[in-house]
Amino acid sequence: MPDYLPELVDRLLDGFLVTLRLLALSGLLATVIGTVLAAMRVSPIAPLRAFGTSYVNVFRNTPLVVLFLIAVVGLPAVGILQGSFFSRAVAALSVYTAAFVCESLRSGINTVDPGQAEAARSIGMTFGKSLRIVVLPQAFRAVIPPLASVYIALAKNTSVASAFGVTEATYQLSNLNRDFPDELYLSFLGIALGYIVIVAVISGTANRLERRVAVGR
Amino acid sequence: MTAVLFDVPGPRARRRHLIGTVVAGLALAALAGWVLWVLWDKEQITPEQWEPFTEPNIVNLLFEGLVDTLTAAAVAIALAVALGAVFASGRLSDHAGIRWPSIVVIEFFRAVPLLLLIFFLFLGFGGPLGTFWALVLGLMLYNGSVLAEIFRAGILSVPRGQSEAGYAIGMRKSQVMRQILAPQAVRSMLPAIISQCVVALKDTALGFIIGAPGIVRDAERIYIAPQYNNPLAVGIVLAAIFIIINYSLSRLATNLESRMRREGRAVIGTEAAAEG
Predict the structure, then answer these.
(1) Which of B6, B123, B242 sits opposite A61 (nearest CB)?
(2) A42–B115: do the CB atoms touch at under 8 Å?
């Protein structure tokens, strides 16, 4: 039986490497899908708006565990999504998080005062120009805090993958507990600390970014 | 439609939008058709897949599971509200010796994944507690910490003149809190609290992972039965049940929020609830 502490560090590194890969990949995919959905939700084309709204209502109100069941068990059983457990977890996490990304972006755009865009148009800016120079920079500022909470939630949600065949950080708790049942508290605190660091990095980055783009009013 | 991005459309823009509507409508119809065709092709739209949900024993099983899930969520929310009130008053305390531990505890449980917490409670105390309480206590600790922050925001949203007036007539801090701030804050927090209920109800499904009683565990028993073997159909039914309940709750919260905003009240909005 190896020593506990080196083994703990070893397995934490293994676990959090997978957690970070899950976070990065599904964060990227969710951002892309969520941006497209947000564009749909603010577009003047009614069917696209309806699609965006339905997507958000469906995926935001479904428990992540149920999405995992569908992505890991349901779809592969009929021959769809037969990749590794990791890729199925990324699929479930991305489609779920995309709904939240969409809502953050949309609420960010809506915080911009309509007068701003009207003023831009009235001095002759084109649609593209007013969007690029006036609306989006202000929307970006308002979007940072809610978007940061979405990524933080995603980081924590990657833990659900532990129950569906992905050996990420949370899986390591039962893994460590099997070999070192007396050290459960330390194992728990060690893994918790890893998540706390991830959360702190995301919110710290968001704060720095927010300060950089802030304007004195 | 957001007024930020567009002017009221003129005749040409209206024509463009009409063309766009037709094209997008056709594209979405094609997408829906393709999804149905794939499901048909994979023999998912057959009586064998869906008939089980009309059998009385299956309906009963799902109903009992739903009752278990709702019970766990309700107990967890009730406990979380109590815990949240304790944590929030701790964080608002004037004594650093109470304030700092409260902050540490709240931030810890908010930053740690709920599933890790439930696993820990299950592995460490699963014997005496059982799966139900491991789940409920995990939900309580997490949602209690989120609610504590909502409560704090609610208390701080009451205009300062209210507490100053309370102190001016000689009330103590606990009296000001109980008789003046809390009653006014509760109204403003209602939308955020309901939204947090939606989050808690969704998270209750995590109990499936440690085998706690609930609708997901019962649903799993259906599709692993060889005579049914319909995991996709079961997943879709599960999702639909949760969507109906959560969508109604979310609508209630946003309607309440917009009504309170129209009436010009202070309101802690639904966005204060935890994401995902």
Answers:
(1) B242
(2) no
Q: How far is CA B79 from CA B144, B167, B190, in A?
A: 8, 31, 17
**ipTM field:** 0.91
Q: Which of B1, B124, B235 sits opposite A66 (nearest CB)?
A: B235
Q: What gap in Å lies between CA A59 and CA A97, rounded to an integer?
A: 8
- Per-residue tokens: A121: 């148009």
Is A46 within 8 Å of B246 when comparing Cβ atoms?
no
pTM of the model: 0.91
Distance CA B104, CA B181 (A): 24
Report the chain A residue with the minimal C-alpha distance to residue B1: A42
Residues of B in contact with A154 (CB under 8 A): 276
- B114-157 vs B56-91: helix crossing angle, rounded to 10: 50
Contact A173 B28 (CB under 8 A): no
* A101-131 residue pLDDT tens: 999 998 888 888 888 888 888 898 887 788 8
Contacts A119 to B, Cβ<8 Å: none
Cα–Cα dist B16/A171, whole Å: 53
The 8-class DSSP code of residue B45 comes to S
Provide the CB-side half-sphere exposure for B195 (13 A, CA).
23
Type of residue at B119: F
Q: Does the CA dihedral A143-A146-A150-A156 come out positive or negative? A: positive
Model pLDDT, residue B1: 44
State both tokens at A29: 């995919």
The amino acid that residue A77 corresponds to is A
Cα angle B216-B221-B227, degrees, rounded to a multiple of 5: 140
Q: What is the pLDDT of residues B4-16, one digit of tens each?
A: 677 778 888 889 8
Integer Cα distance of A36 and A22 in angstroms: 21
How many C-beta neighbours within 10 Å does residue B187 have? Answer: 15
Indicate yes or no: CB of B275 within 8 angstroms of CB of A185.
Answer: no
Q: Is 90 exceeded by the pLDDT of residue B2?
A: no
pLDDT tens digits along A15-69: 999 999 999 999 999 999 999 999 898 888 899 999 999 999 999 999 999 999 9
Report residue B25: phi and psi, to 5°: -60, -45
Residue B188 is classified by DSSP as H
Return the closest-CA partner of residue A101 out of A49, A27, A210, A25: A27
Does B115 contact A63 at a Cβ distance shorter than 8 Å?
no
Quote the percentage of chain A above a pLDDT of 70: 98
At position B187, the amino acid (one-letter code) is R
Distance of CA B247 to the CA centre of its chain: 10
Instruction: List the one residue out of B34, B55, B106 whose CA is nearest residue B227.
Output: B55
Distance (Å, whole) CA B130 – CA A139: 48
d(CA B125, nearest CA chain A) in Å = 11
Nearest CA in chain A to B9: A44
